[in-house]
Amino acid sequence: MIVIRIAAILFGVNFAQADDYTYWSLGATTGNLYGLYWGSYLSYGYGEQSCKDKGWKNLVYITSYHIDNEIADLMLGAADYTGDYGYWSPFIGMTDYSHEGWWKWNDDIPVVHQNWGPGQPDNHRRNEDCGSLEWPMNWWNDIDCGERLPYICFQEPSTASRSSIDNRLFSIRNFDGGKGTQELARSSCKKVGLRLAVVDSDEVITKIENSRNPNSKVGYWVDGTHNCLNADKCEGLTSYVCEDVFPLALEPSSQDEDYMVGDTIKIECTSSVVSTVKWQKQEGAPTDNIWMDPLQNIEPGKATLIIKSATQDDSAKYRCTANKDIIGQSRAYATFVNIRVHPEK
Ligand SMILES: [Ca+2]
Ligand SMILES: [Ca+2]
């Protein structure tokens, strides 16, 4: 029987200088997740690309007044978070550059719901083809696409909150100074580029419970259908559980582990987020933990393991790894495939 375990695991977290500041909020009505980025100001095209590279759908599409309200919540939260209550003008995902005056959201969705500021869009100097949000007015302006601005990314709930349990990563953390509130737990997760774990199924509870020290009697703050786990009362807790917002998924192309000597083996490993992906082969005893780079073809977001004429020496555990950078931290993910090369009969 062929069994492949696809386990995304977290095996390294490096803390480095944050250079991509972000603030997230979950839309109360739509379930969309929004992220405001202000670490590096980008032109419209680079902002759009940055959203996609980070695993978001795109720059935000504000297609209803519900989303206007959710964006207001995001911006109010970001102001509180940064202490900056002044003027912000982040890019949103709309342009009229293909046809002057015909505004569209990036996926060619016509702009029906409108929230323009007074006198906008005015195509000032005949050179304003990209949309921005003007805060705290919370209305839109058309602006030069080459301006460098903060930007708002979004993700719809299908992938924001319902990604496979295998790919969701949770980490239990302790408050620096003893006890803390759920609100402090939320902001502590955000500070390291995570969110307070969203409990939306029993599987999530099982996964978190399996990752805690079984002897621990400590309760944890979470979000979602429960406010805390492992505690009689949700108060005075010293720990909380953070969750990666967009866990990176790695998918090997082949479910086939068994080969014969002389076979050609090609296994692609594809990442759900644009990142550098690479195969490694385990050498020596498993406890030595030595990983070497085998022959492979590396492209953005994908690596293809190539074994041209397999020998029994190629029998080994292989891992496909990728890194995701978020708020100046690098998180490493891996998925494993065991290859067995059998002698000819
Ligand atoms: Ca225009
Ligand atoms: Ca304008």
Structurally, how many domains make up the residues?
3
Largest sheet: 6 strands, mixed
Question: Distance N terminus to C terminus?
Answer: 20 Å
What is the overall pLDDT average? 86
CATH architecture descriptor of the largest domain: Roll
Strand fraction equals 35-45%
The CATH topology of the largest domain corresponds to Mannose-Binding Protein A, Chain A
Overall geometric form:
flat
The total of helices stands at 5
Total beta strands = 26
Radius of gyration: 23 Å
Find the structural class using helix and strand composition.
alpha+beta
CATH superfamily of the largest domain: Mannose-Binding Protein A, subunit A
In short:
By secondary structure, this protein is α+β, with helices and mostly antiparallel strands. The protein is built from five helices and 26 strands. The chain has three domains: 22-157, Mannose-Binding Protein A, subunit A (Mannose-Binding Protein A, Chain A, Roll), CATH 3.10.100.10; 170-244, Roll (Mannose-Binding Protein A, Chain A), CATH 3.10.100.10; 250-342, Immunoglobulin-like (Sandwich).
Structural summary, described in words:
The protein has five helices and 26 strands. It is an alpha+beta fold and about 350 residues long. The protein folds into three domains: about 20-155, Mannose-Binding Protein A, subunit A (Mannose-Binding Protein A, Chain A, Roll), CATH 3.10.100; about 170-245, Mannose-Binding Protein A, subunit A (Mannose-Binding Protein A, Chain A, Roll); about 250-340, Immunoglobulins (Immunoglobulin-like). The strands form six sheets. Strands 1, 19, 21, 22, 25 and 26 form a six-stranded mixed beta sheet that branches. The chain has a five-stranded antiparallel beta sheet with strand order 7-6-5-8-9, with helices on one face. Strand 23 (about 295-300) and strand 24 form a beta hairpin. The longest helix has 18 residues, at about 65-80. The structure holds calcium ion (2 copies). The site of one calcium ion has 8 residues, from strand 9. The site of one calcium ion (CA) has 8 residues, from strand 9.
